[in-house]
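User: Just a sanity check before I run the rest of the batch. Below are the structure tokens for the first item. I only need the designed sequence back.
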């Protein structure tokens, strides 16, 4: 890969500005939404790399987005009120060898991405795609301010009058942060200066939450093995036109065959003056013999030919996995384990967690689906956390919150509520019967007592309180639910499917589905019911949740 995780920013010893390809990599490699105004074209000549390079303002070890790309800067399209002087910044980002090399690496990356043929194992989306009116970038999440203005119809007022109206909204529950991020103040000031009036509907249309558009993505990675060679089928494989005929005295035998992609490993043997010699080659599904970068196609070992086939498959038919990175910190026995990242890809400041290689992870959720005590399907949250909010909270309490890296994120006081709203929407959208989360004591045991007070506060008090507050209008309240967890055996999800282990951690069998894997459960194995916090979601509740949605704040 040309754009590497450790070289995504170009910073200079002098000057306050630099370049970043981080958001491009997040899109192409990590499944983030495309935040750029242009799509990557299959025709490489249409891909101007400058369109995918962000101009950044550097402040020590942190950086923030200026609000334009290198292409925008070059033609003078700068964001309004940014304070950026084009000539000054262009001077900092002059066409030096460093800049040219950086942009060239981005071009190489774009060319490779536009040539990629297929991606297997696409994950299910967290929620359906957002529509044009979804101001926060995800469906079912709305602005209370915008809705209250829309409810006022054609009512008109001047800027000062609207400010007083919004102050009254705040007395009735509207969060000050929501008004701040709606960016209405400049428009209202202009309105007052011109002694003009504006209707409530027009003002609602000016609510601009562009920096707070959310994205929910899984933690994905490439499978360790893109292809799996098995014994060739008994039937003869059809010879294709591209497969060269064997030379005189030469024999060719298929020694391994991948039934999904059609790769094969062949042993090529022929007689020489010194006796029988054999080599190995990798062949594509269409009969094309693969060559390495030096033009070599025959190899002395089977492993060498297999490695060439695996490399080719990784580049051309990548198999992506959404199994996350921290599955070892989850109860075994669950299905469809996922780690979801709730991100703010458009937010100018750049927070980077030590756990995930993605900008501005507001919160992360680790979860799976398991059977409840009543036989229902439960979305079981193994963890709900915000590294960003936790760092900012520590900085605020210690009085050391001056750097951008330690400034409180948006939704600082409501990140947990927002996370649970999104999780509830996810469960309703996928037709699950309940949402549950571990108790604080479970987390304390899992992490050997580290941060026990905070874990108990979050899981036993904060999350139940927030869920009760958001679901109370539809008559739903938290309760204790039971979920089944293996205690003297293990079922782990891997890229091969589901693996069953004995109490001594001996692999007993592997199957593609959890249901098939249960045939390997050993005699004497049993599960216990763990009592956890949760809410039940019947058909009516799911419909109400998806019909009404949730406010981003409150």
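Assistant: Here's the designed sequence for the first item:
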């Amino acid at each position: 890969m040309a754009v590497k995780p450790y070289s995504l920013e170009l910073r200079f010893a002098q000057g306050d500005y630099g370049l970043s390809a981080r958001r491009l990599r997040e899109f192409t490699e990590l499944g983030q939404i495309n935040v750029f105004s242009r799509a990557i074209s299959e025709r490489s000549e249409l891909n101007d790399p400058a369109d995918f390079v962000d101009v950044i303002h550097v402040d020590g070890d942190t950086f923030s987005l200026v609000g334009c790309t290198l292409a925008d800067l070059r033609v003078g399209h700068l964001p309004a009120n940014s304070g950026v002087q084009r000539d000054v910044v262009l001077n900092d980002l002059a066409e030096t060898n460093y800049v040219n090399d950086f942009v060239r690496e981005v071009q190489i990356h774009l060319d490779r991405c536009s040539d990629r043929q297929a991606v297997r194992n696409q994950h299910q989306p967290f929620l359906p795609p957002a529509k044009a009116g979804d101001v926060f970038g995800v469906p079912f999440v709305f602005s209370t301010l915008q809705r209250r203005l829309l409810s006022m119809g054609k009512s008109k007022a001047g800027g000062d009058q609207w400010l007083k109206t919004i102050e009254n909204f705040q007395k009735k529950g509207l969060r000050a942060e929501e008004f701040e991020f709606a960016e209405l103040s400049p428009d209202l000031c202009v309105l007052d200066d011109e002694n003009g009036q504006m209707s409530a509907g027009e003002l609602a249309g000016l609510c601009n939450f562009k920096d707070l558009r959310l994205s929910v993505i899984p933690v994905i990675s490439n499978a360790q093995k893109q292809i799996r060679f098995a014994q060739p089928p008994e039937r003869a494989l059809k010879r294709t036109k591209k497969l060269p005929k064997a030379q005189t005295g030469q024999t060719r035998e298929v020694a391994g065959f991948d039934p999904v992609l059609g790769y094969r490993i062949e042993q090529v043997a022929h007689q020489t003056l010194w006796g029988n010699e054999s080599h190995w080659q990798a062949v594509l599904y269409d009969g094309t013999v693969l060559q390495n970068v030096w033009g070599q196609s025959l190899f002395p070992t089977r492993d060498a030919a297999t490695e060439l086939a695996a490399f080719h498959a990784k580049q051309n038919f990548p198999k992506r996995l959404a199994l996350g990175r921290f599955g070892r910190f989850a109860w075994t026995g669950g299905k469809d384990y996922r780690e979801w990242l709730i991100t703010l890809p458009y937010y100018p400041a750049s927070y980077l967690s030590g756990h995930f290689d993605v900008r501005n992870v507001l919160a992360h959720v680790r979860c799976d689906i398991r059977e409840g005590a009543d036989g229902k399907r439960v979305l079981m949250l193994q963890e709900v956390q915000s590294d960003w909010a936790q760092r900012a909270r520590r900085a605020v309490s210690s009085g050391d919150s001056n750097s951008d890296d330690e400034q409180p994120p948006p939704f600082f006081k409501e990140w947990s509520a927002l996370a649970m709203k999104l999780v509830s929407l996810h469960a309703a959208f996928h037709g699950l019967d309940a949402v549950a989360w571990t108790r604080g004591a479970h987390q304390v045991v899992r992490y050997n007592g580290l941060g026990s007070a905070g874990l108990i506060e979050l899981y036993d008090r904060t999350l139940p309180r927030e869920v009760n507050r958001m679901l109370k209008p539809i008559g739903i309240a938290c309760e204790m639910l039971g979920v089944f967890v293996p205690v003297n055996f293990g079922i782990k999800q891997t890229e091969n499917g589901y693996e069953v282990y004995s109490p001594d951690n001996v692999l007993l069998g592997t199957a593609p589905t959890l249901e098939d894997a249960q045939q390997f459960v050993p005699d004497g194995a049993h599960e216990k019911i763990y009592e956890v916090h949760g809410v039940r979601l019947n058909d009516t509740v799911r419909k109400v949740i998806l019909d009404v949605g949730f406010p981003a704040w409150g």
